[in-house]
Write the structure tokens for this entry.
Amino acid sequence: MARVRREFTAVYKKAGGRYLGWIEEIPGASTQGRTLKETKGNLKEALSLILAANKELHRKNALGKGIIREQVAVSV
């Protein structure tokens, strides 16, 4: 299956001497860093890992006959 480019909303906040970052649409996709640049990189990595883990988890739980898998596009 082809890779699909997805866009999410990243939010950053300076807290003391660090930056916090999270993805609004994905609970648990959050990180922190010493600089905004570091936090952005950490957040992209965290999001990639969460999406890959969720996909693998659901694939393992959905094995068997009668499974239909397709891409769905929405605008919000």
